[in-house]
Amino acid sequence: MFSYYLELALRSLKRSPGLTALMVLAIGFGVAASMTSWSVFRAVSGDPIPWKSSKLFVPQIDAWGPSGRSDKDDGEPSDAMNYTDATTLMREHRAKLQSALYQIAPSVVPAQAGRHPMNVSGHAVYGEFFPMVDAPFKYGSGWSANDDAQRAAVAVISAKLNEKLFGDTNSVGKSLNIEGKDYRIVGVLDKWNPQPRYYDVVNSGGFSEGVEDVFVPFQRAIDVGIPNDGNTNCNETPKESGFVGLQHSSCVWIAFMAELDDSSAVSTYRDYLTAYARDQQKAGRFGWAPNIRLRDVPAFLEHEHVVPSDTKVSLLVAVGLLLVCLVNTIGLLLAKFLRRSGEIGVRRALGAPRNAIYAQFLTEAGVVGLAGGVLGLLLTGAGVASVGFVLPKSISDLARLDVSLLVITLLVAVVATMLAGLYPTFRASRVQPAWQLKSN
Amino acid sequence: MQIKPIIAALRHHKAGTLLIALQIALTLAIVCNALFIIHLRMAHMAQTSGVDEANLLVIQNGWVGKPAAGENASMLAADLATLRKVPGVVDVYATNAWPLAEGGTVYGIGHTPDKLALVTSTAVYFVDDHALATLGLKLVAGRNFHADEISATGPDHVAPAEVIVTRALAERMFPDGSALGKMVYVSAKPSVIVGVVERMQAPWVDNFAAKWADYATLVPYQLMDSAGANYMVRAVPGQRDDVVRAAPKALLAANPMRVINRDNGVQTYADIRADAYKSDRGMAILMSVISVMLLAITAAGIVGLTSFWVGQRRKQIGVRRALGATRGDILRYFLTENLLIGIGGVLIGIVMAVTVNLWVVTQFEMARLSLGYVIVGTAVLLVLGQCAVLAPALRASKVPPVEATRSV
After folding, report:
1. Domain boundary residue among A259, A294, A320?
2. CA distance A133 to chain B (A)
3. Could you give phi then psi for residue A78, rounded to 5 degrees?
4. Are residues A162 and A39 in the same domain?
5. In this structure, are residues A13 and A368 in contact, taking their beta carbons and an 8 Å threshold?
6. Pick from B66, B116, B283: which is nearest to A225 by CB?
7. How many CA atoms lie within 13 Å of A105's alpha carbon, on the beta-carbon side?
8. Which of A117, A125, A329, B222 has CA atoms 20 to 30 A from the CA of B91?
9. What residues make up the domain containing A425?
10. Angle at the Cα of A346 (from A344 to A349), degrees rounded to 5?
11. Each residue of A251-279: pLDDT tens digit?
12. Do residues A91 and A29 share a domain?
């Protein structure tokens, strides 16, 4: 029976090609616009480490007090840490894994003669950073706690930098000149570029174009004075100048992440942060009651408004466009179906039940939806390819055409068109056979 | 034209009438807000930076290794001298940031050293005595820095004895217009305003700097940053592109221990502007495309449904024609019918547009929709409806009176 309805549908659609084309175009454009903007939205609002994000926490400690928050006093502590607090938290080491980190942009001098030095970006981290974020290694591994303590000259580099400098061979054990000093490569990361850049939202603003090329031990970077390349926020001018002055100041510039595996670990750590802040208050460093936050990664990303409001607005507008397209389709299907009242009357008079009318016309709506979906697929492909014209590169690069997007595009087109077809079909099924037969 | 019979006829097509009205309403609601977003973004992009963009370029230079504290100043001086010798260069200075850079330094500025009594935030630009000539800034009061006032400092140590401020900042700090010679505080030490320049935009164009986008303070410092230095270079008109090619070559020839990135090491202001306003331009394009699509689909929908109605009513039209109605009467009938539906849809649409905007305002730091957009949107949709209905209505007017006698 279905193939018969399919044939009827195709024949009917062929009879009014203009109307059919109009419906297919409307569905195609509507679906493509929504799916393109959804692909961007999905990319920026996704969980960068879904298997672990609820165990990774960002502690915040208020080191400025009420006077540091002149603008909007919602009591929120700054989202980064100063050197004193970050290194104390590292020294006391209360979480299962933790790392303070700051952004660096050192120059790297290739060993080969005649090649120009280049700037790379990366982070100064503690050794526990790599297991904490499940960073995948192609060769070697991260460094040990002992390396951290010894301030060893070791480095982890990206697969991309490895390819550039060593031609994709295993470079573990080789030496790399960073900022004029030699570092031993202990690990080469596999392809790894989590977005949003959840471990350092403050400096990446959530999304970064480039891959992180180099990681060096935090205390080593401090010792040799690799300066902070990220944001620095101060509530007062540092008393001493330079990078050392920054370390002695209350300026915040260090990101911090801790892994806490269960709720008791979380509450213990929260108590620890409160106790730490209270100790600082007693010691006279903080002139205010403990004010701390401990958010997991999803909550922190939400708090930092990582999803750009432009992507939300475009998604809303695109969904609005789809809605108009569907209203349009309802109207056109209604016209199309009721034009065939005579035919419906004949079928009903010959004994077709209402269900048969439903099946026939919903099949027709489905065919329109499918055609619209196929057109939508092509347009979505074009749309995803051209988001780069509309959105910043760091975000547009994330929008991808994958199988799930293709399947969803088709599904949305077919289901939405069949829903739009429900009312016209209902009207068609109500056609009075006697009246139709008489009037013709 | 009789309206009553039209309304009576529309009662027989409740569903179709409602659908067209709803489509017009939704389209109006979305198009009004989209037009408004387009306008906001265009206005944002139309801000001027205050500098001579046509002839300026920025060179971002990274040092390899860490220059010792003593070396930094002489390397900077050597680079500035090298750049001045490049043919086509008018002037040059080293700095921390520039308008539209999207990165830079911001300080609070006030009338007392007390942190809590800040008046506003201000962008801080590190400059020397060549900056005004390089940027093409116009002094509206006071004087430029003297060469002997320029000192060397690290990125986070700002306590200038003299400052030059933009006119917008001067008026914000001293509304009576007496800024020149007055004291302001960006640090614990007082700074005297020695000059006022007409305009220089802050480095940021996004929301966070919106309130102080025109407030900039020029401080007489040469930035000693062991990571690198940024040079602002002004070229002779027409020779900018030659300087873009020659300047990095000259620098590398003078001292190869540096990094000037191939893709963004040397940027013209056209590049900088395009980068800074990319998302604004993108949103404006996106909203325009979607608005055009919406209007096209709504127009097509009106054509489709009206054509159906015309087909359905051929016999009635024939009867009317046979009873003496002219072609013009039939044409006017369909145009009026569409106008009535359009007005209904537009009325619902205005309510929806305002509701949507009120909600959007609470969600995404956006301004209130001004009435102008609703009026323009309404007019556009009503005219669009009339144009869309014209073709089927003309076809209806051509139905011959003899149709009345057919197929009965």
Report:
1. A259
2. 28
3. -60, 155
4. no
5. yes
6. B66
7. 16
8. A117
9. 2-47+308-439
10. 105
11. 899 999 999 999 999 999 999 999 999 99
12. no
Q: What is the end-to-end Cα distance of chain A in Å, rounded?
A: 28
ipTM over 0.95: no
| Closest CB to A310 among B33, B153, B283 | B283
- Give domain status of residue A12, yes or no: yes
pLDDT tens sequence across B302-316: 998 888 888 888 888
Do both A255 and A326 map to the same domain?
A: no
C-alpha to C-alpha distances, A429 to A61, A125, A341, A419, A426, nearest whole angstrom: 67, 69, 9, 15, 5
Sequence ranges of the domains in chain B: 4-45+279-405, 65-256
Q: Is residue A296 part of a domain?
A: no
Does residue A53 lie in a domain region? no
Partner B contacted by A422 (CB < 8 A): no
Whether A120 and A42 map to the same domain: the answer is: no
- Are A331 and B226 within 8 A, CB to CB? no
On whether the CB atoms of residues B192 and B165 are closer than 8 A, the answer is no
Structural tokens at position B285:
């394009």
What does the pLDDT average to over B157-178? 91
Q: Which residue of B has its CA nearest to A383?
A: B286
* Residue B408 confidence class, pLDDT cut points 50, 70, 90: very low
Please indicate whether, in this complex, the C-beta atoms of A227 and B227 are within 8 angstroms of each other.
yes
Inspect the interface and report whether the beta carbons of A323 and B285 lie closer than 8 Å: no
Q: Looking at beta carbons, which residues of chain A come within 8 Å of B104?
A: none
Establish if A67 belongs to a structural domain: yes
Judgement on whether residues A351 and A389 belong to the same structural domain of the protein:
yes
**CA atoms within a 13 Å half-sphere pointing along the CA-CB vector of A5:** 16
